[in-house]
């Protein structure tokens, strides 16, 4: 499901809502508005990991994989993408080459090619646009559960270690 707007939209809306509720709640001594303000701040924090990711062009993704790096095809705001982002530490997030398939015009084509070659299931009639998808030298896989998220973290750590040498 596509979340409309830029990645900054939801955190910004939640912060504005939180400040409004906290301001009016304090001025009127209204506990319900204060609680709503705190809840809105918590919701804003839910989206913060997305704001720390710098997307790069899809054109450089395949070269990055050939050089031993890790590429993740993602969509801002998508549930599994948020789970992946939250599970990674900042160093792992920085080691990954992130491609936003909505923002990059070559992103959807790369995603479709990856599903066709990575899984062997997709055909021209059946496109699989599931994200996030991790690309490494040996395999491409959909990051669907905790084991897959741990696998991405391991790949990112290995890529980071290769860069240091």
UniProtKB/TrEMBL annotation:
It comes from the Bacteria. The chain crosses the membrane at residues 7-25, 31-50. Keywords: Membrane, Transmembrane, Transmembrane helix. This is Uncharacterized protein. It comes from Micrococcus cohnii.
